[in-house]
Design goal:
Length: 435
């Protein structure tokens, strides 16, 4: 009987093995591996100073990241440049490790002239892409540290009417590089109706200026209704109206992060008071992986494609230049460029003109002194084969000798007349030859 049961067991296991190959455990394998490796996430905060960026970060992650912070005074802010400050914390929750990096941008929008003050932010994002691109193309690809910025919380002032020109310019400059999540800061300074109007206005302006902010992925059709509703609420809340607080308040027996005012209490995590919970859930619980995916698959891919395009263009240009050199070397064995032949021809023409004018001078000297120049200088035909500089010496010699031979006053007058006509001509010719 016992033997029979044993056989049944063996047959049963064999049947089960046929149907169960084992790849269903893949998610578990991936899970185990990624948990072991840990996760990384990088958030950037941008916006004018004093909007509550550091307070919100501390509230989001229940830490105090800005203990040693030094706020510059008005004088220091006049010419302040934008700094990039990096804070990294490791958080562990239920055995899952997260290396969280916060990139702060103190000084943004603080100076008198804020032209291109978003440039350091843009450069920082590009540098992280560049580093990742280098690491990815390097030899050791196993331990690449991902420092790419996955999300940028852009803080908009609750005061004023919608976006400021600086907000528009900055968001437009960053839109192709990072997932922008706009937030209305210090929402407790606005009434419920004001918050609603502000959100509408900002959404309208974002559309009007063609700013690409982070787009939440579409819900799958097979998702349950509750999930779909939550997703819609999230999409309708953009820009998130947030409140931050570094202090714990105790009221009616329970403790919470809040702000105490003479007229009442503001609870940071109360959905009726702010969108803080929505933002935190979105960043931490529901969309962290999607933010990372969009960064990798869209923003980084754009950067990478641009890089490869530039590199290919450079290589093609280099090759073209090299083949041109090789071709020209084959075509012209002598190192003579086409332009040189033309220059040579012009020089030859000028030489001819100068030679002609010297011959005229020699003839006029002959006539004035009634002595053939050829008697004491080289024959004229020989002179014409000389270079202009040699011709000049020849004429000078001829003139100095003939000067002493001129005796009659008539001859002197003729010589003077001839010289006043031809010397300017010679000078003009020499000048033209020189230029
Ligand atoms: P940052 O310069 O943008 O980092 O701004 P801080 O976090 O240093 O905040 C500047 C001031 O605003 C501080 O006095 C904060 O207490 C205050 N603050 C921060 N968050 C809020 C908020 O949500 N509402 C209100 N009313 N004040 C806030």
């Amino acid at each position: 009987m016992q033997l029979h049961t044993c056989f049944v067991g063996v047959f049963f296991l064999q049947d089960q093995d046929k149907e169960y190959v084992g790849f269903a455990t893949l998610p578990n394998q991936v899970h185990r591996k990624t948990v072991k490796k840990g996760f990384t996430f990088t958030i950037m905060v941008a916006g004018v100073s004093g909007l509550g960026k550091s307070t919100l970060i501390n509230t989001l992650f229940l830490t105090d990241l800005y203990k040693d912070r030094k706020v510059p005074n008005a004088q220091e802010q006049i010419n302040q440049t934008v700094n990039i400050v990096k804070h990294t914390i490791s958080i562990e929750e239920k055995g899952i490790k997260l290396r969280l990096t916060i990139i702060d941008t103190p000084g943004f929008g603080d100076a008198v002239d804020n032209t291109e003050s978003w440039k350091p932010i843009e450069d920082y994002i590009d540098q992280q892409f560049e580093q990742y691109f280098r690491d990815e193309s390097g030899l050791n690809r196993r331990n690449i540290q991902d420092n790419r910025v996955h999300c940028c919380l852009y803080f908009i002032s609750p005061f004023g009417h919608g976006l400021r020109p600086l907000d528009v310019a900055c968001m437009k400059a960053l839109q192709e590089k990072v997932n922008i999540v706009p937030v209305v800061a210090k929402a407790d300074s606005l009434t419920q109706a004001e918050v609603y109007r502000k959100k509408m206005k900002i959404r309208e302006e974002i559309k009007q200026y063609g700013i690409n902010i982070y787009q939440f992925p579409e819900c799958d059709s097979d998702e349950d209704e509750d999930f779909k509703n939550q997703d819609q609420i999230l999409k309708d809340s953009i820009p998130f109206a947030v409140i931050g607080s570094n202090v714990q308040v105790e009221s009616e027996g329970h403790k919470f992060r809040g702000r105490v005012y003479p007229w009442g209490l503001v609870e940071v995590e109360n959905p009726a008071h702010s969108d803080f919970l929505l933002l935190r859930n979105m960043l931490m619980r529901t969309h962290m992986q999607d933010l990372k995916d969009v960064t990798g698959e869209t923003h980084y891919e754009n950067y990478r494609a641009q890089c490869i395009q530039n590199m290919t263009r450079m290589v093609v240009q280099k090759r073209k230049r090299r083949s041109l050199i090789e071709q020209s070397e084959a075509d012209f064995p002598l190192p003579l460029a086409a332009g040189d032949t033309e220059t040579e021809r012009l020089i030859f023409e000028k030489d001819e003109e100068v030679r002609f004018s010297y011959r005229l001078i020699l003839l006029s000297l002959d006539a004035a002194t009634q002595t053939p120049a050829s008697a004491y200088v080289q024959p004229r035909d020989a002179c014409t084969s000389l270079k202009p500089s040699q011709m000049r010496c020849c004429v000078q010699e001829h003139f100095s000798r003939s000067h002493w031979l001129i005796t009659s006053s008539e001859a002197r007058v003729t010589l003077l007349l001839q010289l006043t006509t031809f010397i300017p001509l010679v000078l003009l010719m020499s000048f033209r030859t020189a230029h």
